[in-house]
Design goal:
The protein is built from 9 helices and 7 strands; from the N terminus they run αβαβαβααααβααβββ. The protein is α/β, with parallel strands linked by helices and 236 residues long. It has 2 domains: 167 residues, TIM Barrel (Alpha-Beta Barrel); 41 residues, no CATH class. Strand 1, helix 2 and strand 2 form a beta-alpha-beta unit. The longest helix is centred in the C-terminal third of the chain and has 15 residues. It starts with 18 loop residues before the first helix and ends in a 6-residue tail after the last strand.
Length: 236
């Protein structure tokens, strides 16, 4: 963290590398042709990752990623776009962390945490995932978190101004993730010429009440147009 935890003065976390070490490793791997993905949760870690990506010799066209990006200094969000960095995030984490995040971060940093709306407003590509097995594998829990920012009981909300729409969240899970792996020309859409990878679910996830998103069940799964899973609920 850039500043100590609010409930633990003097503790800013444990960096795994110095900035010089991180810069060197990033540059070596970029020169070898690798796309880079750094795991960075705290605002200082995100800043260090961005500083590494900003080095001459690391292209903004590489679609490098920062995984998690849960606490990011608002001043650094514009750097994501400038450096072509994707915010690869997992809305699931909010449901786990919201019980203690504000007490650890303090209200100012918490306000800018899990900042999906701010990233989109800054023109930063979002790629969503589940972070399984750290969190449950179901994407519908993350979809619920992204559009409500409420706990699963519906009794607590966490900075609702950072909510996004269902369409934006689904795009981040599909088109956003495809973009992050340079696969947007054949993945992430239901469109002619694209891989026919899709699911059939038991409800209209655009129209069902938000709490019902948590109960969404997959009826069928198709990979490359072939049925690979069928729920008993789908068998007629």
């Amino acid at each position: 963290m850039k500043a100590p935890y609010s409930d633990d003065p003097g503790n800013t976390g444990l960096p795994q590398f110095t900035q010089a070490e991180l810069n060197l490793m990033a540059l070596e791997r970029a020169k070898a042709g690798f796309q880079l993905g750094f795991h960075a949760i705290g605002d200082k870690a995100a800043e260090m990752a961005l500083d590494a990506f900003a080095q001459p010799g690391i292209s903004a066209d590489a679609r490098n990623r920062i995984e998690h990006a849960q606490i990011v200094d608002r001043a650094d969000m514009a750097r994501f776009r400038k450096l072509g960095v994707t915010a690869s995030m997992q809305p699931n984490h909010l449901l786990t962390d919201m019980n203690w995040a504000e007490s650890r971060l303090g209200p100012k940093r918490a306000e800018d945490s899990y900042a999906w709306r701010s990233f989109l407003d800054a023109g930063v590509p979002l790629a969503f995932g589940t972070d399984y097995p750290v969190e449950p594998i179901t994407p519908f829990r993350g979809l619920y978190a992204a559009v409500t920012r409420m706990n699963e009981a519906g009794t607590k909300i966490y900075f609702p101004e950072q909510k996004i729409t269902r369409g934006q969240a689904l795009s981040a899970y599909t088109q956003g993730s495809a973009y992050a792996e340079f696969a947007e020309t054949h993945k992430g859409k239901l469109e002619q010429g694209y891989d026919a990878d899709f699911i059939v679910v038991d409800r209209d996830i655009y129209a069902t009440p938000a709490p019902q998103l948590l109960k969404t069940q997959v009826l069928e799964t198709y990979v490359a147009g072939h049925l690979v899973f069928e729920s008993r609920m789908a068998i007629r």
